[in-house]
Amino acid sequence: MQQVGQQARKAASEMAVATCAHKDAALRHIADQIEASSAELTQANALDLDAAETRGLDSAMLDRLRLTPERIAAMAEGCRQVAELPDPVGEISDMSYRPSGIQVGKMRVPLGVIGIIYESRPNVTVDAAILCIKSGNATVLRGGSEAAHSNQAIASCIAKGMHAAGLPTQAVQILKTTDRDAVGLMIRMPEYVDVIVPRGGKGLIERISREATVPVIKHLDGICHVYVDADADLAKAKSIAFNAKTHRYGVCNAMETLLVHQQVAAQFLPDLCAQYLTHGVELRGCDLTRELVNDDRLLAATDQDWGTEYLAAVLSIKVVADFASAIEHITTYSSAHTESIITENYTTARQFLRTVDSSSVMVNASTRFADGFEYGLGAEIGISTDKLHARGPVGLQGLTSEKYIVFGDGHIRV
Amino acid sequence: MQQVGQQARKAASEMAVATCAHKDAALRHIADQIEASSAELTQANALDLDAAETRGLDSAMLDRLRLTPERIAAMAEGCRQVAELPDPVGEISDMSYRPSGIQVGKMRVPLGVIGIIYESRPNVTVDAAILCIKSGNATVLRGGSEAAHSNQAIASCIAKGMHAAGLPTQAVQILKTTDRDAVGLMIRMPEYVDVIVPRGGKGLIERISREATVPVIKHLDGICHVYVDADADLAKAKSIAFNAKTHRYGVCNAMETLLVHQQVAAQFLPDLCAQYLTHGVELRGCDLTRELVNDDRLLAATDQDWGTEYLAAVLSIKVVADFASAIEHITTYSSAHTESIITENYTTARQFLRTVDSSSVMVNASTRFADGFEYGLGAEIGISTDKLHARGPVGLQGLTSEKYIVFGDGHIRV
């Protein structure tokens, strides 16, 4: 790992000054290589799939692991899309003259070496690598053992693409070893690694955060709330509440708890709940919800429900006395990922925006919009629930930092 | 510490929504309290000074500890200056409509609870507290035992000022205990503390960084370089090199190593060195420097010199073969704080700006400008040599984060 770190550090200094043209050329070459290597990728992936089946991995896991022709095409397309994005490196902003006569501003620069630790999906290998390349960083990728063959086949495409563009191949190192010790070393090499981005289950991320001496950009749960206010347009509320839960279940920006102001609960909940139940969503409500809806299929929510990220067709529902109770519930149980208020009231909307301390706070929109592509970042390496550095969807900018630059004409401090 | 943490977390949620008017009123009340308590502050400080003398602290330490009438007036003035700064909290930027129809942007928000660990200077107590108040954060301050009485007297002024403005007094908690265990607990309470800012010697900062589970904004050494290029205007170079070393010695943005391109070294160095020596600066040069200058007082630099932050009237000087050698020296020995190039060459200046990976990179200006006030931040809580989150001088903005905000009109993902 020491050697990997040294190589990454050296490559990072070359990547930091690589031109936009070179980096984009590399991304397009990688896309070509992926398309040209479709057969090899499928073959390598088959080895991983066989091993996974032998080990008895479940079907969801197998699905994440599988490289289909569509997924291979999507990986190549992803490379070309990132090539189209503007280069964040070297961007200068906020230049202004100071009373002393110096001109001060900021220049955007790469972070250096980014360590990415992830689990089974091989497309993460490409996504993560290309964002690091575009943002002028070097990266060390450590994927899951289930995807080892697929990842090495992808590594070969990336190396060829980098080589073709004249960029250092060691700017993207995909570890061959998948043993746990490698992770332990990687997260404790601040001299070689500037930041760790773990992608995977909560257990993985918690373990890494606890043990790392390198800073970690983390994404823990997505316990997202929609709060239907007394002044909500109930048609908008119904459509958003339904979308936020049912558009996709296994994603971090899906709503897990619906909060409804008591003034509108009787009018709002029965219809909506019927719609959820017809759609196969399991409902768990507070006492008042169950009274108002009066359907045997509506289960009783326990305290544990409010703090659970279901990532499934399950929703907890709570009727709240007022705005303050809604905020209190969110403050207590939210994972600070995304919350949305449905209201037509200007003052209430402003209060919600100011008070709720989550990475995305919305008014009259589905939580499902909390996403790098939807926000216009072009791509994302994850969604940060941290407050420092990057918060919310992390795109190219989240993989960079800013340094101060100063222009003088011989200026000295007096 | 558990209780301190809980109180801080609660106060932080109140501070986050405090209006600009309330926060500024608190700062002005604190200024009034400090002025009105001049006698009490001096008395408390005398107790600390007596104890320090008894314990045999050196005169530099005693000087840092001393509260003079001027320093007390400056603390009050600092409060009023921060009150004049614009409120960073709630600033909205980059709002734009996306193809989906949602409007997305960012809102600046406080970080939450900021832990500050520092050593003897009691004015840091006020500086740190007021920056945290203005940026809508709660803070837990842990000063050095030498300043315990002074800090408690200051704490009383702050509490009275907060109370007078109707803000929670527990938003600024100045720990009475000065034992080391308190620090150990504070840096390991991520549930209550969002970021730690250590201010003090390298030993303190390294220990905290190693042991903290809370993110740390750190400032290690300031080994700053001035590089005099072959195309430098030597009059500017002389004035800047002299200023960067001699304007103040014990500061992190003072130059510690002067690099000179060999083409101009013979013309440039003898005069400048004579000027330094007359001024009482001890010089340590490379072989070539000593040949060119030929003065017995010019000592031989050892390898250790290049990596030393003197914080004193000492300068190391090295003649380099070319631009690339200068960059290599900086990459090897710089602490990534501040570096300045002196050149009239457009291309060389651009290369230096792009290549040097320090928190401040300058052209034709003295490194002494690397400072929050000089950069127009209004105040600073420290200078970060980290890359993540805050880099360079950290002002109010560095104590905040941004969350995404989304406005819709009933928008759902399709």
From TrEMBL, chains A, B:
<keyword id="KW-0963">Cytoplasm</keyword>
<dbReference type="InterPro" id="IPR016163">
    <property type="entry name" value="Ald_DH_C"/>
</dbReference>
<comment type="function">
    <text>Catalyzes the NADPH-dependent reduction of L-glutamate 5-phosphate into L-glutamate 5-semialdehyde and phosphate. The product spontaneously undergoes cyclization to form 1-pyrroline-5-carboxylate.</text>
</comment>
<keyword id="KW-0028">Amino-acid biosynthesis</keyword>
<keyword id="KW-0560">Oxidoreductase</keyword>
<dbReference type="InterPro" id="IPR020593">
    <property type="entry name" value="G-glutamylP_reductase_CS"/>
</dbReference>
<keyword id="KW-0521">NADP</keyword>
<dbReference type="InterPro" id="IPR012134">
    <property type="entry name" value="Glu-5-SA_DH"/>
</dbReference>
<dbReference type="InterPro" id="IPR016162">
    <property type="entry name" value="Ald_DH_N"/>
</dbReference>
<dbReference type="InterPro" id="IPR015590">
    <property type="entry name" value="Aldehyde_DH_dom"/>
</dbReference>
<dbReference type="GO" id="GO:0005737">
    <property type="term" value="C:cytoplasm"/>
</dbReference>
<dbReference type="GO" id="GO:0050661">
    <property type="term" value="F:NADP binding"/>
</dbReference>
<dbReference type="InterPro" id="IPR000965">
    <property type="entry name" value="GPR_dom"/>
</dbReference>
<comment type="similarity">
    <text>Belongs to the gamma-glutamyl phosphate reductase family.</text>
</comment>
<feature type="domain" description="Aldehyde dehydrogenase">
    <location>
        <begin position="5"/>
        <end position="276"/>
    </location>
</feature>
<protein>
    <recommendedName>
        <fullName>Gamma-glutamyl phosphate reductase</fullName>
        <ecNumber>1.2.1.41</ecNumber>
    </recommendedName>
</protein>
<keyword id="KW-0641">Proline biosynthesis</keyword>
<dbReference type="InterPro" id="IPR016161">
    <property type="entry name" value="Ald_DH/histidinol_DH"/>
</dbReference>
<dbReference type="Pfam" id="PF00171">
    <property type="entry name" value="Aldedh"/>
</dbReference>
<dbReference type="GO" id="GO:0004350">
    <property type="term" value="F:glutamate-5-semialdehyde dehydrogenase activity"/>
</dbReference>
<dbReference type="GO" id="GO:0055129">
    <property type="term" value="P:L-proline biosynthetic process"/>
</dbReference>
<comment type="pathway">
    <text>Amino-acid biosynthesis; L-proline biosynthesis; L-glutamate 5-semialdehyde from L-glutamate: step 2/2.</text>
</comment>
